[in-house]
């Protein structure tokens, strides 16, 4: 069977995080394709560039908090959006997109098709990605 995957290049510069993540999730799931089925992995690969130039609306930059629990009693870790953005801007997009993917066994496979880079340089030129305008 022929591989029907496409590669899309998406620029995150001056894009609002939630709207941006929902469009990427649709590309990863494959809802834009004719042969979409919810139980099959028919989504495409997505390359995100300029991840550190994404924006948020309102006061999310100061007020939004990410939670992580280590599994031990009393070890709920909190980190603000601002601190995560400074430390690892890739995590912000990855977390937003993975929250919009279906909660089943295909989620891991779909999230592996997301490639996030902080600047314009990426190493997927040989795949000849199509530019996807949002």
What does this structure look like?
- The model has no long low-confidence stretch (mean pLDDT 94).
- Helix 1 crosses helix 4 and helix 3 packs across helix 4.
- 31% of the residues lie in helices and 19% in strands.
- The chain has a 4-stranded parallel beta sheet with strand order 5-2-1-6, with helices on one face.
- A hairpin with a 6-residue loop joins strand 3 and strand 4.
- The protein is α/β, with parallel strands linked by helices.
Can you lay out the helices and strands and say which pair or pack?
Elements: E1 7-11, H1 17-29, E2 45-49, H2 60-63, E3 65-69, E4 76-80, H3 81-87, H4 89-100, H5 107-111, E5 114-116, E6 130-131
Parallel strand pairs: 1-2, 1-6, 2-5
Antiparallel strand pairs: 3-4
Summary tags:
134 residues; alpha/beta; Ribosomal Protein L13p, Chain: A; four-stranded parallel β-sheet; two-stranded antiparallel sheet; 5 helices
Distance between the termini: 31 Å
- From the helix content, strand content and strand pairing, which structural class follows? alpha/beta
Could you report the average pLDDT, rounded to the nearest whole number? 94
Strand order of the largest sheet: 5-2-1-6
Strand count, sense and closure of the main sheet? 4 strands, parallel
CATH topology of the domain at 7-61 and 89-110: Ribosomal Protein L13p, Chain: A
Question: What share of residues are in beta strands?
Answer: 15-25%
**CATH class of the domain at 7-61 and 89-110, please?**
Alpha Beta
Which parts are unreliable, with pLDDT below 50 for 5 consecutive residues or more?
A: none
């Amino acid at each position: 069977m022929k591989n029907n995957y496409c590669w899309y290049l998406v620029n995150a510069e001056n894009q609002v995080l939630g709207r941006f993540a929902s469009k990427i999730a649709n590309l990863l799931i494959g809802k834009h394709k004719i042969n979409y089925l919810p139980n099959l992995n028919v989504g495409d690969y997505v390359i995100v560039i300029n991840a550190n130039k994404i924006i948020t609306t309102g006061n999310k930059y100061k007020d939004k908090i990410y939670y992580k629990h280590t599994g031990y009693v009393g070890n709920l870790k909190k980190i603000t959006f601002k601190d995560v953005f400074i430390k690892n801007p890739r995590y912000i997009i990855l977390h937003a997109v993975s929250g919009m993917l279906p909660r089943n066994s295909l989620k891991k496979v779909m999230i592996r098709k997301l490639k996030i880079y902080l600047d314009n340089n990426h190493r997927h030129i040989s795949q000849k990605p199509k530019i996807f305008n949002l």
